[in-house]
Each structure stands twice: as C-alpha cells, then as structure tokens.
Design a protein that fits this description.
heterodimer; A: mainly beta; 4-stranded antiparallel sheet; B: mainly beta; 7-stranded mixed sheet; 11 strands; globular
Chain lengths: 106, 118
C-alpha cells in the first residue's frame, strides 16, 4: 500500500488552521496513524485509528477520514507544531509511511 | 516511565553485518509488539520490521526481507535487529518503537546510526 501526502511543504503563521492530506493507494479502513517529528528527534504519535487523539496530545490536533483519504488538522498552529508530519498505515504489511509534510514558519 | 534505548550502531563495510539492540524499561515488555523504523540522512521514515509480543510472528519491508532478522528476548526486555549483507542504502538512523494496539507506535527510542561505507 502506497501513501501520498499533500502538500509536501506548508508555510503557515502562528494561529493558522492547517490541514494535511494523506491518500492510500487502496482502502485501509481507519487503520492510519499520524506523527510529527522535529529535527534530530524521534517521531511522536499524534493520532491513531484515523481520528483517535493519543493521550497527552493537545486537542488542537484532530484527524478524520477512512478508506483512502485522510486529513490531519491543526486548529491553531503553535510554535512547537513546526515540524514534519507523517502518516502511516496499519492495515496490512508492510506498514508504510507517507513521504512527509514539512510545516514551516511563514 | 517508558524507555527504549537503542545501541549497536556504527560504521560497517558493504556486505558486513551488525546487530542492533533495544533495551526496554518502564512497561511490561512481554505484552507489546515491537517495531524497527529507519530514517536515512535527510529522508523520511521507513518502516523496517515488526515482531509480535511473544515472538511468534515477524514481518519485514521488502527492502530488508531476507537480509535482516528481528527477534526479542523477553527475559531480558530486549529487542534485536540483525542486519546482514549490508548495503550503502541501509545507512540510516534505526529507531525501535512500541506497538500501540496495532494502530500506531507510541514510544520510540532515540535511534542508533548505522553507516555502511567502505
């Protein structure tokens, strides 16, 4: 299963609402997770099962979608949110990642 | 608190071998599946392998199948990745991670760098 993400790069300002799309090459039900990663650090799980917020993750993050199209939304961008975002499918092996979306400061 | 600490990375020649370890603490290791994920310099994340909580099943990405072996010693709370027939394209930071209900990877180690170069 191939995952694509759009956009590849996103420039935004503090307080902006941003959305990232992840598309799967075949239906994966709701078997999708979202992470963000800062340079030199390990990824952090934000959302699993497409829309379930991981414990401790701020509520400004939300996920939606099922089947082949999924969206991660950040309702109001904060300084700590500038990072690269990845989706990953858990529907079938191999558990592929998307190519990433870098969120940068405008 | 949950901790995952990788070790064993280093510089190895093409065709060589290396064994990575991931020491787990702060949780009941025997209750969780575990993953290896890698990241080549400046590139995105690539899922490498998964092993069930009891070691009864493993699966691999196509790029490493037949060359890498994931294993675990539950008595030592340690996950392993045996890397054989290494290639330049295997150069990456290798992360271990804890499986969260087959739906995500909720805890990650800090990563260990493997460099394949002559």
């Amino acid at each position: 299963i191939q995952l694509t993400q759009s956009p590849s790069f996103l420039s935004a300002s503090l307080g902006d609402r941003v959305s990232i799309t992840c598309r799967a090459s075949q239906a994966i039900s709701s078997r999708l997770a979202w992470y963000h990663q800062k340079p030199g650090k390990a990824p952090k799980l934000l959302i699993y099962a497409a829309s379930t917020l991981q414990s401790g993750v701020p509520s400004r993050f939300s996920g939606s979608g099922s089947g082949t199209e999924f969206t991660l939304t950040i309702s109001s961008l904060q300084p700590e949110d500038f990072a690269t975002y990845y989706c990953q499918q858990f529907n079938s092996y191999p558990f592929t990642f998307g190519p990433g979306t870098k969120v940068d400061i405008k | 608190q949950v901790q995952l600490v990788e070790s064993g990375g280093g510089v190895v020649q093409p065709g060589g071998s290396l064994r990575l370890s991931c020491a787990a603490s702060g949780f009941t290791f025997t209750g969780y599946g575990m993953h290896w994920v890698r990241q080549a310099p400046g590139k995105g994340l690539e899922w490498v392998a998964f092993i069930r909580f009891d070691g009864s099943n493993e699966c691999y990405s196509d790029s490493v199948k037949g060359r890498f072996t994931i294993s675990r010693d539950n008595s030592k709370y340690t996950l392993y990745l045996q890397l054989n027939s290494l290639r330049a394209e295997d150069t990456a930071v290798y992360f271990c991670g804890r499986d969260w209900h087959g739906s995500g990877i909720d805890y990650w180690g800090q990563g260990t760098l493997v460099t394949v170069s002559s």
